[in-house]
């Protein structure tokens, strides 16, 4: 049996027997989410929790002072940053900012795969949020949340992390990146849903992870559609005809205006703003 087939067999067996090791949220993200779920929590208490992690504190300051928040006056303290972001958004934004801590390995080849996966997730998030914000500028009745969109895009393929972790035991697989990609495409959707359920993420996150690969628009429009737009922009779909039909549906529904939507100044500018948050 080839190493590639062995990995597929191991993954299938562990999934069936519920023995696959799933990634766990970073501890700081868990504390933030638990604190945010407390109906009596104050902004000051939330600031104290975030202050326990220097890297996350710096990221939250960057978010608060970014174009993402649409403010020109800079904040200079963490409490000011938390106040500007607000409790309703901070749960998702802080989780998104902390996720990078999961994409770490002591093995060079594995780390290269994890780096690529994280970069892909950031690109998907930047495209999805840029398209959503552009759409909302023309359709203010759209109540989808940019902070939920950011986190949803960052975890849309979280099952790939579990696949790569399992593949660490088969280092020869990393010499075949196309094979590893095909394994991820096959196994990640189911694993992603399991991870998000274990993390206590809402149904909208699970739905996006499960169905974004399906080349068909949702009715009504939801977070998954903006991840699909990112997939179109990145040339993910294997059928050019299906991808073109999907894009045409979004144009007809005024989600995007033109086939080359990433070249539109508003979307291109928003895309750069979102990417800058993770640099």
Keywords:
279 residues, mainly alpha, 2 domains
Describe the fold and architecture:
The chain has helices at 3-16, 27-36, 43-50, 54-64, 78-85, 87-98, 108-138, 146-154, 159-167, 177-198, 203-211, 223-233, 240-252, 265-276. It is mostly helical and 279 residues long. It has two domains: 20-102, no CATH class; 103-279, Hypothetical protein af1432 (Orthogonal Bundle), CATH 1.10.3210.10. Helix 4 (54-64) crosses helix 5. The longest helix has 31 residues, at 108-138. The mean pLDDT is 92.
Q: Which segments are poorly predicted (pLDDT under 50) over 5 or more consecutive residues?
A: none
Q: Please give the share of residues in helix.
A: 55-70%
* SS content category: mainly alpha
The end-to-end span amounts to 42 Å
CATH architecture of the largest domain: Orthogonal Bundle
CATH topology of the largest domain, which one?
Hypothetical protein af1432
Determine the strand fraction and express it as a percent band.
under 5%
Pfam families: HDOD (PF08668)
Protein name: Signal transduction superfamily protein with modified HD-GYP domain
Domain HDOD: 22-215
InterPro entries: HDOD, RNase_Y/CdgJ
Topology, element by element:
Layout: H1 3-16, H2 27-36, H3 43-50, H4 54-64, H5 78-85, H6 87-98, H7 108-138, H8 146-154, H9 159-167, H10 177-198, H11 203-211, H12 223-233, H13 240-252, H14 265-276
Helix pairs in contact: 1-10, 2-3, 2-6, 3-5, 4-5, 4-6, 6-8, 7-8, 7-9, 7-12, 7-14, 8-12, 9-10, 10-11, 11-12
């Amino acid at each position: 049996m080839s190493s590639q087939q062995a990995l597929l067999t191991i993954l299938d067996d562990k999934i069936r027997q519920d023995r696959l090791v799933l990634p766990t949220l970073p501890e700081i993200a868990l504390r933030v989410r638990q604190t945010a779920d407390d109906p009596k929590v104050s902004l000051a208490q939330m600031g104290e929790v975030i202050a326990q992690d220097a890297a996350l504190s710096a990221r939250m300051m960057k978010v608060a002072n970014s174009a993402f928040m649409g403010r020109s006056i800079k904040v200079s303290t963490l409490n000011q940053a938390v106040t500007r972001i607000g409790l309703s958004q901070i749960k998702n934004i802080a989780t998104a900012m902390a996720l990078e801590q999961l994409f770490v390995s002591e093995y060079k080849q594995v780390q290269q795969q994890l780096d690529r996966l994280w970069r892909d997730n950031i690109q998907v998030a930047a495209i999805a949020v840029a398209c959503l914000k552009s759409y909302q500028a023309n359709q203010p009745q759209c109540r989808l949340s940019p902070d939920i969109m950011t986190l949803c895009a960052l975890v849309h393929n979280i099952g790939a992390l579990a696949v790569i972790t399992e593949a660490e035991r088969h280092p020869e697989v990393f010499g075949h990146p196309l094979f590893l990609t095909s394994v991820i495409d096959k196994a990640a959707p189911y694993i992603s849903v399991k991870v998000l359920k274990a993390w206590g993420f809402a149904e909208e996150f699970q739905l996006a992870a499960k169905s974004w690969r399906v080349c068909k628009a949702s009715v009504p429009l939801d977070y998954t559609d903006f991840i699909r737009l990112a997939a179109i922009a990145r040339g993910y779909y294997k059928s050019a005809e299906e991808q073109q039909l999907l894009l045409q549906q979004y144009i007809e529904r005024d989600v995007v205006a033109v086939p080359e939507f990433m070249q539109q100044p508003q979307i291109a500018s928003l895309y750069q703003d979102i990417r800058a948050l993770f640099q």
